[in-house]
Each structure stands twice: as C-alpha cells, then as structure tokens.
Batch of 2 targets.
Target 1
Amino acid sequence: MGRIAVALIVSSWVIPISILVNRIVPEPYMDEIFHIPQAQQYCKGNFASWDPMITTPPGLYYLSLAHVASLFPGMFFIRGGSLLSELCSTPILRSVNGVLAILCSVIVYEIITLLRPNIDERKATIFAVVLALYPLHWFFTFLYYTDVASLTTVLAMYLACLKKKYHLSALLGAYAVFIRQTNIVWMLFVACTGVMDITLAHQRESLKVDNLNTTGNKIGHSVPSNRIIVGSNMRRRKPNSAVDNSKSFDDEYTHLFNKPFIRFS
C-alpha cells in the first residue's frame, strides 16, 4: 500500500475507460471543439493563433506539448516540431488528463499523510482512491479539459507548501493560474497558509530562546551550595541551644528547691 498502490489502482480504471471513450467518442466532444484545435495549432508551432471563444490561458496546451514530446522523445529529436502536429490527435491529447489524474491521486495521498501523520497507510490509500472517484474530477479525466490539470497543479502547490518548499509552491501556483485564471484564489489561500506556518515557526523559536535565557539567568543567580548548608545548619542549631538552656535552668531550679529546709528548734 502507499503511493504506488494508489497509482496502480487509479491506472486500472483510467486506461481501459480512456480506450473505451476514444472508441465511442473519437471526435472532439462538447468544449473539446475549442481546446483540441487550439492545442493542435500549438503543435504546429502557430503560437500566435488563438480562438477568441477560449476563456482560459494556454497553460494546458504547453503541458500537452511536453506530454507529446515525452511520449516519443527519439522521434521528436529526429523529425523536430513537424512530428508534433501529426501526433497531437484527440486520443493523445486526452491522455494528458489521464496521466495527470494518476499524478493527482498520488498528490492527494501525500497531502493526507502530511495532514494526518498518524493515519494508517491502508486508510490513506483508500481515502486517496475514493477522492480520485469524485464525479466531476472523474468525468473530465477522459476528456481534454482544463479541470484535471488545474486541480493537479493546485494540489501540487499546496503539497509543496506543506513540505515548506515555498519557492516551488510559488512556481506551481503561478503555473496553476496560467492554466486557469480563477486559481488565483487558491494561490492566495496557500500563500496565507505559508505565512501562518512561517509566523508560528518564528514564535516557537522565540519561545525556545526566551526559555533558554530564563534558565540561564536562574542558574547564574543561584546561591552556592555551601552557603545553603551553613545557613541550614545555623537554623537547626537555634532550637537545640534553646532546649539546652531550658534544661540547665530546670536543673538549677530543681537543685535549689530540693535542698533541705533549716529547722529552728
């Protein structure tokens, strides 16, 4: 169990269902009629081309270019950019979200284990798999939309913040906004979380320093042990001397009154 188990379980339904969707719906579906042609323009190198019907930034299209190049690295270096225009088909572009969905489930597992460090590994795996089946996320896993890529980058940003890798978190947040501009809200949320963590960490450090200084001052102003012993001995001797004086007075008093009386005859 663990992140590998999560990836394998999610892959077990992402791959076959993706194949099934591509067989049943081979052509662009719903908003894919805008995203897929735009991505194919980027694959051809026409970065100045833009469909005015698209309201999101081009972050997903650049991810698609990297994905296609990683699938066929040898052919890409041999034939160059002309190969991308041939490989940017609808099934290949849809597979971007399939890969991101698997990565997203692993990120969810990591977040769960960080937020709940005492959780059992099996429970964390089950929670991550169940969250990967969230209906809206699950549906768009098999289509070429910005939802899965947006969610993956936002969660990766949050995970980096939890691991206190703030520079990486900032870069991921910037790219999340580059995929979908509304992610600026989540970027602010994660930024506030990071500020709170840093502030609490500084407070803990200052408390530790204050405690160390207080302990040092107490040690510096402490009385030597020999003085304490002498003082305690002196305090102990006072009641003993008083007892001795009272005993001597009683003896003299008894001796005085125990003398025989003089009788006058």
Note: The mean pLDDT is 79.
Target 2
Amino acid sequence: MRRLPLRPLSALKTYSLAQRPSKVRADELARPLPKGATVAEFLDALPRILAAQEFRDLAAAILAARARGRPVLAMLGAHVIKCGLTPLLNDLIRRRMITAIAMNGAGIIHDFELAFAGKTSEDVASALEDGSFGMARETGEYLNRAAKAAARRGAGLGESVGRMIAASSWPYRELSLLATCVTHDVPATIHVAIGTDIIHQHPTCDGAALGKASLTDFRRLAQVVAGLEGGVVLNLGSAVILPEVFLKAVSVARNLGARVRNFTAANLDMLRQYRPTVNVLSRPLSLGGRAISITGHHELMLPLLHAAITEGLPS
C-alpha cells in the first residue's frame, strides 16, 4: 500500500485561548447547596447551561406572560394526572398562572376516578387477560352521561365533566382538575379519538354525543389559541393527539385573522417525540417565538416548574 506523505504541522496557525468564544464559563457552573437551602437557592445553584437555563427561561416566560395578561395554555397527556400532579396544576390555576387546559380523552377518566374514588390507573396487563380491562361501571356510566349532557346543551366535554364533578358530593372532588377549571372560569377542552379510551367500550357510549362535545371543545381551543400571542403553550406529555389538535387550532385561528405568533412553546416529556417537536415547537413558530424542549419524568419536572413559578410570584 502506498504511503501518503505526512505534511509538517509547523505551519499551523494557532491563537490564544483568551480570544476564542466559548460556550461554557466558570460563572455558569452549578454550585453545591448548603443544608436547608431554599427553593430559590436551589434554582439559582443550577448550572446556567442547556436544559437548566431553558428551565429557568420557561418559568420566567410564564411569569412574564401572566404579568402582561397573556395566556398560558397547558396541554396534558393523561399520564400527567396518573403521576399525581393535579394538585400542582390546580394550584397554578388558582394562582392564575394557567389560563386554559386541554387534554386527551383519557384525561377525563383519571380526573373522574380520582374525584369519585380517590384512586385511578388499573393494571392493564392482568385485566386484559380476562377481558375486564376498562370495565369499571361507574367510569363508563358517569362520563358517557356527561358526554350526552354536553351534546344536548351544546357544551364542551371538558365543561360538562367539570360541572358534574364540581356539583357532586364525591369525597375527593377537590382533586379534580376539570372541576377546578369550572370553579375558576378557566376553559378546559377534551380532544377525543374514538376507540382510544375505556369508556368507548361501554354500552352507554354514544359516539355522536362524544363527537359533538369534543368538536365544540376543538372550536373553543381554537379561540384560546387565537389569543396566544405573547403567551405560553405547554405540551406536557402528549405525544400525538394534542400536538395534532394544536396545529389545526393554530391554522383555524390564523385563517380567521388572529395573529398567532411570538409566543413561547415548550414540550416537557420523558422522550423527544416527532409530533411535539414539529407540531408544537417548530411549525407554529415559523412567524416568531421561542421553542423550549426539556426531557424528564413528569413527576420530577412539573413539581420543579411549579416551585420555580411560585417562587417567582410577588410575596
């Protein structure tokens, strides 16, 4: 094999490290925390690099949006409720830090079951073996009844379920995200994909009623999105449904003349998925805005975000 001649490196041009732009500086590094440190001290001790800085920026964007009277829309996958995080979301609603909620169809199931029975999330693998998966009677009866009531009144599914829970005497109704939205006049929309939720298995399910109520909620979400300029949209754990719904809501809002631009879009999930990346963080921001993506478990990330927001509120 022919050997190529090696060029001498004596002619290489170098420069002083002091002249080179660098992405990491000493004053941006993390700092150890003393015992008994406060939340503010913890947040300040995080490195000012990559996701840690984006996390700070997200909390700051939410606080700034609300200080200017701009909306904060939280779109949830149902896993967020299953992870025990509704008390934190309810608190942010009461503090007027979240101004609208959107969920997929599974969200109403976990919200109802927690309010009604104080428990939710069955063992799918074992229940599937004998066909008992999804067959809890009360879940199907109450939620399908709420869907029919929504269709009769021309209401959305989120509002109907929220009003049902808020008006009940169920022992855990204060845990309900939808009831909190109703009592604080916060729009809550539910976006159903027929066949994906356990209540669709029940004989009480009326597909026409579900479709009508969910379509009403889509139109309501489009109205929320129409006012999103200067605000924040959070996609918390929805990999498919809500990114797709959000994209269409943006199109409807713009088609009707709304300026939907210059907002912050954030995706928080355990994995980076295609649809949240493209339909929440990329395409809707082509006219301006900020995209933030933070990867981590909901049961860790959302409490941290709640703490960062509440720490930034005036005393």
Note: The mean pLDDT is 96.
